[in-house]
Amino acid sequence: MSQYESARAEIEALCSKLVEGSVTDEERERIEQLVRSDSAAKRAYIEYLNLHAALYRYNAASIAPLCATETAPSDTRSPVLGFLSDVFQAGTNFFSRGLVVSLLLTIGLPGALFLLLILHVARQPVPSGSAMPVAKITQMHECVWGEGSAPLPIGADLFSGQQIRLSEGLVEIVFADGTNVIVQGPSTFETNTRGEGFLRVGSLVANVPKGAQGFTIRTPTATVVDLGTEFGVAVEDEKDTLEVQVFQGKVALKTGAEDADRKPSRHHLVAGRAVRIESAHRQGKMVVREVAFSADRFVRRLPAPTKPVKAAIIADFSGGEGNAEVDQFPGVAGSGWATGWSVGKAKGLKCITSIEQANPLLGSGKYLCVLFQRESGASAARKARALERRLAVTDQVDLTKPYVVSLNLRIDVLNRFAEARDRLSICSRRVSQVEYERERGVSSGWHICVAGKSDKYAKSRNWAFLQRDKKGKRFGVDSGIPAREGNTYSFRILVDPPARQWTPSIAVNGGKWTAFKAMGMRSQGTAKRNRYWPFLDIYCVMEGGNKGEDVEKIGFSVDSIRITPAGEAI
Amino acid sequence: MEVCFHFTVMVMSMHDIDRVSEFVQLQTKHQQRVFSFILTLVPHWPDAEEVLQETNMVLWKKKEQYEPGTDFVRWANQVAYFEVLKHRKRQRGHIRQFSEAFIEEVAAETLSLDGPLQAQREALAACLAKLSEKDRALIAHRYLEGATTKTVAAAVGRSIDAVYKSLQRIRSALLACIRRAVVSEEWA
């Protein structure tokens, strides 16, 4: 083995440990030494990590189909194929999630065309065929989603074979080849490839830019192939009837493509012309006849908004339990929420959640009831667990500008809540267990808490505000308002990211508001530069442990969560 | 249940729409190249994903600065590089990291190798096809979300050590294969 091959073999062995997370400090140092001293080792290192990345990204799209085509017919699932199919599906979801999350955070300016909010897509059934999105929803206008079709936000990626059902309104979809399609409800439309869609029923207009010629719209009756143009297609429900109208350029029209029994025919249609294609069942062929061109037949542009839409991010749990809609628990991403709710994980700390209607908070209807409970043991080991939801930074509300967070929270139970570290907090901090250590104190902009024991800042069981002063010193402010079981507390927090301040107000049982002075942000963390704290967390920390039947519990109910731009009525 | 969404639609010129549309296409198209660049500098996959998220956000904010027709990947990777540095700063003291000099050298080399690395990624499909079914299944298992050597071992009923060695062997075989494929293509 040459010196070159030897160095490469060594770096590959080390990289294998690196990517599997089993590399030791000495081995990491050896990688550094090799990479920095040997250009071949450096290239080998880069190639190895490149392969690792490609396998992550490629796995879903390629490995399973390769196996499927080589090993057995697609209609019989061998154990291996079945496994690979599952792997493929899961991998596809994985990829979509990765891209989703990353593009989600790419969300643009308020009111901009492309708000890349895609987490929701990860929850959509992503059909096998491709892990790469083939199109994206870029605009909507007064959309009502059809039955069985989960709502998609602006910015959602669409994958091969993904179907959207629109009952009313307009959706603009931009395909990966740049083609702009406006789907008009009621319609059922599928994105097939980066240059092809299937209109099952309904109508659409496709505007195909230069370089994307050949864009194809398939229908149950015929196939319309663009030859550089703008055209409209309408498929009538439950009839083998299709209308095609060309606004600019030219299209090729092929009938019978979806049905082998029908004799195919080909036509060219130019601007200003329209045809209707109908099935003549007895003859087993399609009849194409010219009809009057009507400029009003299709919607070619999404209308400009007639009035500003009030921005608000809301969670009042009116949708009950489920993960199909935004306002459910755990819910899905959308309308300003970047994710659904999560309750994290913590060994030995159980979390019970339910949507309740009885005994509503300040008469507001359904609400979320949460109970954190230490499962066993008198151990004083500290446990933390969070109810958490991530916010989209610039979707409904621009979190980089002043905004108001308001919510109602009822204390249902605080049992064995007597230690200094026993805490119930409401904050913009992220404390999911996986990230806890890494992000400890990182994203906490505003922070309201109640502790089990008095400290130098606040009495036990009094609501307190945690903050830092301009010198970075942490301290708390006692609100003087006790947190009592059975009471409902309304919080209103004016968050001012540019000023790095937050101003809390509290009302008890729907009574008079008590306003407090402006507080400094608890910590800046990653938000220091970007000026946003994109989380809403309610978390508990338990320290004391159980004593027989006397179990550590923190229970609360929450409702009417609303995040609005500052200055708007809440 | 039907849910209604009402969204604000901003009036934009066709020129703006074309530009944004092109930007979205470029960003989508080159996600893998940017992710690959990041992973080279941040080998821990969840961290690399996080950096990719931050990078995408910065790219989107700076989209006006991108000049159509120029090298999008290079620009995106340069942005990613700074996000990697920020990520490292955040993690300092928490985990062991490569030195800054290492990161700087590897980043520069990776940027210069973008073409060959892309060719290698494109050659991967053919090389995966040459694997035995068993090896492909192992790779498929390993690269599922959240999978580790331990979970793969449990899934396939083999020891962790055996799975680890197999993965090392398969990845080396894939590397050898894609290197051969790219070389033969260059000479074809």
Would you give an account of this structure?
The complex is a heterodimer of chains A (570) and B (188). With 570 residues, chain A is α+β, with helices and mostly antiparallel strands. Mean pLDDT of chain A is 76; it is low at 60-131 and 432-442. In chain A, strands 1, 2, 3, 4, 5, 6, 7, 8, 9, 10, 11, 12 and 13 form a 13-stranded mixed beta sheet that branches. In chain A, strands 14, 17, 18, 20, 25, 26, 27, 28 and 30 form a 9-stranded antiparallel beta sheet that branches. Chain A has helices spanning 3-19, 25-37, 39-71, 79-104, 119-123, 433-439, 527-530; strands spanning 133-145, 157-159, 162-175, 180-193, 196-207, 216-218, 222-226, 230-235, 241-248, 250-255, 265-270, 274-280, 285-291, 313-315, 321-322, 329-330, 349-356, 367-374, 383-390, 403-415, 423-427, 447-451, 462-468, 474-482, 488-496, 501-508, 513-515, 519-520, 535-542, 553-565. In chain A, α1 (3-19) packs across α2 (25-37). In chain A, β4 (180-193) and β5 form a beta hairpin. Chain B starts with a strand and ends with a helix. Chain B folds into 2 domains: 1-97, RNA polymerase sigma factor, region 2, helix turn helix motif (Rna Polymerase Sigma Factor, Chain: A, Orthogonal Bundle), CATH 1.10.1740.10; 116-188, Winged helix-like DNA-binding domain superfamily/Winged helix DNA-binding domain (Arc Repressor Mutant, subunit A), CATH 1.10.10. In chain B, 74% of the residues lie in helices and 1% in strands. Chain B has 188 residues and is an all-alpha fold. In chain B, α2 (31-41) runs parallel beside α4 (72-91), α3 (45-61) crosses α4 (72-91) and α7 packs across α9. Mean pLDDT of chain B is 80; it is low at 1-12. Chain B has helices at 14-29, 31-41, 45-61, 72-91, 100-112, 114-130, 133-142, 149-156, 160-187; one strand at 4-5. Chain B contains 9 helices and 1 strand; from the N terminus they run βααααααααα.
